[in-house]
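Consortium newsletter contribution from the modelling node. Members have asked for a concrete example of what our holo predictions look like. Here is one, prepared for the NAP complex that several groups have been discussing at recent meetings.
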Amino acid sequence: MHVLIVGGRGQLGRALQQAFEIRPDIRLTLWNRPEHDIISPQITGEVAQLAPDVVINAAAWTNVDGAETDPDGAYAANMLGPKYLAEGCAACHTALVQVSTNEVFSGEPGRCYREYDQPSARSVYARSKLAGERAARHLLDRLYIVRVAWLFGPGGDNFPAKIVRAADRHGALRVVNDEFGNPTYAPDVAAALVALVDSGRYGIYHLVNEGYTSRYDLACHVLACAGRGHVPVTPIPAREWPRPATPPLHAVLVNQAAAALGITLRPWQEAVEDYCRREFAREEMSGER
Ligand SMILES: NC(=O)c1ccc[n+]([C@@H]2O[C@H](COP(=O)([O-])OP(=O)(O)OC[C@H]3O[C@@H](n4cnc5c(N)ncnc54)[C@H](OP(=O)(O)O)[C@@H]3O)[C@@H](O)[C@H]2O)c1
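And here is the predicted structure:
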C-alpha cells in the first residue's frame, strides 16, 4: 500500500511517519511545504499524478487564536486545502484521511460528543475545520474524517510543553479548571490510524485517548510526571483567562465508531506519563533545566 502523508513535519505528521515506516508492506511518501503547499490548487494535480492508495492530510492551520485575525489564512489551509486534496484523490480513486478537531462541537457543559452528533462550530478555526470536513465529504466516498483533541506529541509546542515551560519560567501557574477535553497523544493516534486505514471502513471517527479532564487537572498531572510536582497551580475559571478565540468548554469526544472495530486508545494519564518520560527524563538526568 502506498501512503502519502501531507504535513509530515507537524506533531501528528511525525508520529504518522514513525507508525507507518515500521511496516514493510507500506511505501511511504512525505510532503511538506513549500514544495507541496495545500493552499495551492496545483496540489490536486500532484496528488493525481502520484496516485497513492491513501492520502493522510495532517497539514492544517492550527493557530486557533491567530485564526480570529486571519480568517482567510485559516480557511485557505483548513477548507481549500482538504478540498484540493480531495479533488486529487477523486481523480485517482484514492482514499483520504482528513484530520479534524473536537472544536467542531459547541461544547455544552456536561455533554460528550459521539460521531453521529451534529457539529456546531463557534470559532473561526473550528468553522474552517468543519468547512474542510464538508468539502471532503462533498467530493469523496472513500473518506475517513478523524477528529482528535488536545493533541500533544514529542517535539511539539503543545499544552503540556507550554505548562512545563511556564512552570520553569514563573515558578507558579494559574490554569483554567472549567474547560474539559480529551488529552490525546499523537503516537497513539498514529497507531490507531494505521489500524483504521488497514480496516478499509470509511466514515467519521473520534480517535482520542480514553477519558477526559480539565486543563487544570491535565496541568497538574503533567507537572507531576515531569518532575515539577512542587510547582503550585491555582485553578481559575476560563473567564479569567481571556483569549481571542473562545474555546468550547466541554467539547469532549467519545470514540464509539473505532472502538466498535476494536480500535481504542489507552487512558490519557498513561499517555502523558509516556510523553513526559520521553520529553523530560533526559533533562532530569543531565541536570539541563
Ligand atoms: N494540536 C491540537 O491540539 C489539535 C487538536 C485538535 C485537532 N488537531 C488537528 O490535528 C491535525 C494535526 O495537528 P498538529 O498538532 O500535528 O499540527 P502542527 O504540529 O501545527 O502541524 C501542522 C503541519 O501543517 C503544515 N502546514 C500548515 N499549512 C500548510 C500548508 N499550507 N501546506 C502544507 N503544509 C502546511 C505545517 O507545516 P510547517 O511545518 O511548514 O509549519 C505543519 O507541519 C490538524 O488537522 C489539526 O487541526 C490538532
